[in-house]
Amino acid sequence: MKYSVKKLIQTSLGVALYSLITHTALGADPLKLDVNLTPIAKIQPTMYGIFFEDINFAADGGLYAELVKNRSFEFEQPLMGWSQPATDPYSTNDDSGIANTLNFAENTTNKNVLRVNVFNDKNYSLVNEGFRGMGIHKGETYRLSFYAANPEGTIKRVVAQLVDAKGKAIASTTIPTTHKDWHKYSQTLVANTTEEKASLKITFEGKGTLDMDMISLFPKNTWKERENGLRKDLVQLLADLKPGFLRFPGGCIIEGRTLAQRYQWKNTLGQLDNRPTMISRWNTEFKHKLTPDYFQSFGLGFYEYFQLAEDLGAEPIPVLNCGIACQFNSGELVPVSELDPYIQDAIDLIEFANGTTQSPWGKVRADMGHPEPFNMKYIGIGNEQWGPQYIERFKVFQKVLKEKHPEIILISGSGPFADGQMFDYAHRELKKLNAEIIDEHYYRDIAWFKNNATRYDNYDRNGPKIFAGEYAAQSVAVVSPENKNSWETALAEAAFITGLERNADVVQLTSYAPLMAHTGAWQWSPNMIWFNNLQVLATANYQVQKLFSTHKGSELVSITHAGKPLTGQNGLYASAATDQPENALLIKLVNTDADARHIQFTVPAPVKKSIATITYLGAKHLLSENSFASPDQIKPEIHRQGFKNNTLTYTAPPHSVSVISIPLNH
């Protein structure tokens, strides 16, 4: 090796290499790998992408940067999230006033407004708790807005404050309420300190009645500084993945526990105050994490999802309800003869995404600020439905959509499990229908992922392509709240991913799931990204996804030992690709063994320079995790290694993932 042991032990990569040098006989004959640069298959730009689901407070309270919970008073308990500094939210505070909601049934999307009655000048106030608090950063500017009507003109002004966990004001502004009729008021606040558990406090000056609605607070520093924007640090982690696609708005979220509670994309468009609020199907799904305050404001709606995909340079992949509610809940069905409205939703979505500004739904897109089409190419029909009920409904969708829009690729599903009778049935029937892409999901244990690197080796090359749409290694058990984002899970996933890459002629899209979770309001673990109100955390699993996604290459090539691919022999897994834009060979090596592996391969092509760039991931222990206290325990380390005569000898450290990049000269 080019570097001395003394030099290497100065880095975390060096620690690993020093350890293997002292425990492995490097003088032993290396394992010889054969590389053949003849292209096997094109690696699709969509090979690695993002699956977003509104679970774990991933939208409201997470990616969507709104800080006020229940801003329009539309939760089942209209004042949930709001208090009138007293234990009972409907009590007065010091007899100075009271607030309740008025319901206007004729408004079908935003029925409730807040009526504030101020009795005297004792500083009656309301407080919003945010999503497990509000994350406020020192020196940052926050945009406050609300609608108000002051018919008597006797409420002179409101004082808006951001207060810390102890009630101390950390930002303040005064807004005169001068309009008798409904009017939108806006003001900014600048925080003088950082606080993870801040609240918004509104105090009323004057005596009389004030009606309010859509009380909103956003950081100015959102992604691209959009007013109805996204949390910048979370989007940056997504952008760093360089994803090929963004699937949205989720999986089970589109199904609903009942069809009445299904996700309906048209309800998520237009002005924010015209978007209805709906309870999340995850609010009380799991007894271990009840979140009765989990609702969807749809401030992050289909327009914003398409916009985000465009920002990321990713293909948008919306998923639509197929006429079946979640089969783990009610399993409610729409009769096949009554599917027309569901199919029309798909037709209208194509027009919204791709239609001209003269078309009805294309005009809606243009009016929202995007006259150019989003160039959508894919639609998912259903999520994890199974059985004859799904197949007969997919068949109807397929017939109509392929007649009207043959250019749109339809993604079908094989159910929630990776095998079994219903899985086999789905594949058999979908193949008869010439389905284009089948979405497979697998939440399995660590051993399963290591043992299934060969899963797609024998799939029909002339059958449907595969979307590995949801997967994550479970350290304890599926749905267990004790699942961890350990290095052991990430390592097993890396081994599995090499099998996805080796079968790039069949597997065209892949994504880890779920994407993200709020540390104070999650329902499911593990997750790729964790966040609190102030910080974001890239897990070991994120680091593996990023390593593969940013080194996917463009054409699959062969790497073998004794004529066979590495699928776990000696604990080694491997895949290889050439990167045409970079004119490089990329070799991915995963060593799941407790011993280092000494390997050697010869590049069968001229190389630009006899120097390889090696990006390495590893950890001190299999149970190691990144945390907010130690976010960089597991992160990529990069070094360069020289070699001679096109032959590289490399030692893969124990329990490691390595990407070796060699510049070619052809």
From TrEMBL:
Enzyme class: hydrolase
Superkingdom of the source species: Bacteria
Biological process, per Gene Ontology: L-arabinose metabolic process
Catalyzed reaction equations: Hydrolysis of terminal non-reducing alpha-L-arabinofuranoside residues in alpha-L-arabinosides
Record domain Alpha-L-arabinofuranosidase C-terminal: where: 469-656
GO MF annotations in UniProt: alpha-L-arabinofuranosidase activity
SMART domains referenced in this protein's UniProt entry, alphabetically: Alpha-L-AF_C (SM00813)
Record-stated family: Belongs to the glycosyl hydrolase 51 family.
Listed name of the protein: non-reducing end alpha-L-arabinofuranosidase
Organism this protein belongs to: Cellvibrio mixtus
